[in-house]
Amino acid sequence: MSTNSSIQPVSPESELLSNTTCQLEEDLSISFSIIFMTVGILSNSLAIAILMKAYQRFRQKYKSSFLLLASALVITDFFGHLINGTIAVFVYASDKDWIYFDKSNILCSIFGICMVFSGLCPLFLGSLMAIERCIGVTKPIFHSTKITTKHVKMMLSGVCFFAVFVALLPILGHRDYKIQASRTWCFYKTDEIKDWEDRFYLLLFAFLGLLALGISFVCNAITGISLLKVKFRSQQHRQGRSHHFEMVIQLLGIMCVSCICWSPFLVTMASIGMNIQDFKDSCERTLFTLRMATWNQILDPWVYILLRKAVLRNLYEHLKTKRIN
After folding, report:
1. Is 280 exposed, middle or buried, given 0-12, 13-18 or 19+ CB atoms closer than 10 A?
2. For residue 184, which of 138, 251, 115 has the smallest C-alpha distance?
3. Within 13 Å and on the Cβ side, how many CA atoms surround 233?
4. Nearest-10 crossing angle of helices 196-231, 149-172
5. Terminus-to-terminus CA distance in the chain, angstroms?
6. What are the structural domains of the chain?
7. pLDDT tens digits, the chain, 325 residues: what are they?
8. CA dihedral defined by 164, 285, 193, 115, rounded to 10 degrees?
9. Alpha helices of 2-148 — where are they, by DSSP H?
10. The three-state (H, E, C) secondary structure of 186-213, written as one string
């Protein structure tokens, strides 16, 4: 876990790295990182193909907006997994010797920006999808006449630009992303925080992530209750309702996966930002919550792969047949 002995300390940061290294990574090989990245890329690629095919099929229908946002979410997960995974593999392959291969801190800044963007953007998109479905179910006329594909693309662009802006805030404020104690990833400054600006970045990240999860929960709850209310009122438009239920089931899957994977990390960052816990004392726990968060990019695509209408119908028929027999 120490840096190469032939390299002399060149800055206080090098001494800090050697003193605050998190002793959890010794048994984690580069092979595991490569397998983890490969599984994520393949899962997201399969989900992208399924969603793109469905989008072409429903291009002029009410489902197109949802599929467009879902495709954007999975594509974001794909590139987040690809970029962050590639950098992580390089870091492991270089024996985590940041002082040797990143003296200018450029790679660490890129890593940190990608970490923040690939974390917040899918959460924002998940909440935007929940809002879109909530309006589609509770205000169908307004949704069909006012919310066009053009409007959805504008909202999608706005969400992505906002996530990029948040990720670039430290750079715009002349602050660097910092190598974390495990020396395997970069993020906002999390140790020995004394400046309000460093605290602000952590709290902003945690607040926006938790807010997105909260909006998703509220909108999905309203959508689900609305669908249950009309389920037995009328037998008309059963096809439309079945597609609504499919999308809501997928949204609930996304929300559950996001909450389970991201909530621990977001709460940990908020605790560090509010000085409730010290990063050095919770290094291993923080690294564990980070790994939970990265699983979100692998599990998200399987929500679309497994919770499709055709798969659910086949599963229902199989269970029905098994029960009869």
Report:
1. middle
2. 115
3. 8
4. 160
5. 59
6. 26-317 (1.20.1070.10)
7. 333 433 334 444 444 444 445 654 444 567 777 888 888 899 999 888 888 887 777 665 667 788 888 889 999 999 998 999 999 889 888 888 898 888 888 999 999 999 999 999 999 999 999 998 889 888 888 888 888 888 889 999 999 999 999 999 999 988 889 998 888 899 998 887 878 888 999 999 999 999 999 999 999 989 888 887 776 666 555 545 556 677 788 888 888 999 999 999 999 999 988 887 665 567 778 888 998 998 988 888 888 777 776 666 776 666 667 666 6
8. -10
9. 12-20, 30-57, 64-93, 98-101, 106-138, 140-146
10. EECCCCCCCCHHHHHHHHHHHHHHHHHH
Please, what is the Cα angle at 206 between 120 and 158, to 5 degrees?
35
Length, in residues, of the chain? 325
Q: What is the 3 state secondary structure string of 79-98? A: HHHHHHHHHHHHHHHCCCCH
**Which pTM was predicted?**
0.84
